[in-house]
């Protein structure tokens, strides 16, 4: 890769390189900067992003460098470099919502013209992205949308490779970068094997946030890395994939417009209220923001059946229950905490603090009834925390 430092200008113009870059042959692997094991972490944020995070503590300067660059809108000259097959061995080098909009399958993105996307469109995508620190001590960070109308869709896809045709066919553009190896790199062209991605197509404007082999023996996180470190990471995993089943697995972040959801709220003694929400919003926060009376003060807590009150959305008390009359398919599946809270209760009941509307970024109508537990005396009794389904 081109070792020259990135130049800075107030009004940068795209700079494109079309030559193939060769890297010296070496039999040793570059030391991974993240020595600790990785685990998949679902992070709840207003921008709906899931990241493949390392459980490691890192220096504060490492986290904040790109974060402030993107937040302050500094300009960088983008360096676009193609990464095709190379004759010599590839460089020995080195995988987030309120909820994730979509983690598998065909993309719901409305950007159908991305293959002809312009440089200005790339700038527009870059301006809407920021690097967010979710947990400094745990080393959890990832991309988020600065524009509330947009969210991040998480895509899992695979690129088939072979020893006869090992080229990925991806062109990457570095939109931001600095000396500590952090940056923002977008896909700017999709050709060759990348066009044949299996689970979901790769689109111009996507961000590669992770890469792994099929058996998971080698996986690398690329969130927030500059061009050189991104290519280094993908190259290492590509070589391992070619020695295995020839499949390279990619995790991508994609900026998409959030779908609109109509949430109809049935309240005791009141007319039905309709609220317009964006896909990915937390149901409890949405209802409270619209002054909907969500809680019945007589409801005993699940975690403390001798007390009333609520846990402020921590998913512990089970007092923010709603009954879903319509649109259950537009909500996220129950997690372990919600399964515990709603065990023995009607299947249509959800804990609103654990519920996300439009979790797959699909529009539609949802109807919920607040305080369904008020119909059952047992629900207001501190000694009983389960009820029979009401016919």
Automatic annotation (TrEMBL):
<keyword id="KW-0411">Iron-sulfur</keyword>
<dbReference type="GO" id="GO:0005739">
    <property type="term" value="C:mitochondrion"/>
</dbReference>
<dbReference type="InterPro" id="IPR001055">
    <property type="entry name" value="Adrenodoxin-like"/>
</dbReference>
<feature type="domain" description="PDZ">
    <location>
        <begin position="156"/>
        <end position="234"/>
    </location>
</feature>
<feature type="compositionally biased region" description="Basic and acidic residues">
    <location>
        <begin position="1"/>
        <end position="16"/>
    </location>
</feature>
<dbReference type="GO" id="GO:0046872">
    <property type="term" value="F:metal ion binding"/>
</dbReference>
<dbReference type="InterPro" id="IPR001041">
    <property type="entry name" value="2Fe-2S_ferredoxin-type"/>
</dbReference>
<dbReference type="InterPro" id="IPR012675">
    <property type="entry name" value="Beta-grasp_dom_sf"/>
</dbReference>
<dbReference type="InterPro" id="IPR001478">
    <property type="entry name" value="PDZ"/>
</dbReference>
<dbReference type="GO" id="GO:0051537">
    <property type="term" value="F:2 iron, 2 sulfur cluster binding"/>
</dbReference>
<dbReference type="GO" id="GO:0140647">
    <property type="term" value="P:P450-containing electron transport chain"/>
</dbReference>
<keyword id="KW-0479">Metal-binding</keyword>
<keyword id="KW-0001">2Fe-2S</keyword>
<keyword id="KW-0408">Iron</keyword>
<feature type="region of interest" description="Disordered">
    <location>
        <begin position="1"/>
        <end position="36"/>
    </location>
</feature>
<protein>
    <recommendedName>
        <fullName>PDZ domain-containing protein</fullName>
    </recommendedName>
</protein>
<dbReference type="GO" id="GO:0009055">
    <property type="term" value="F:electron transfer activity"/>
</dbReference>
<dbReference type="InterPro" id="IPR036010">
    <property type="entry name" value="2Fe-2S_ferredoxin-like_sf"/>
</dbReference>
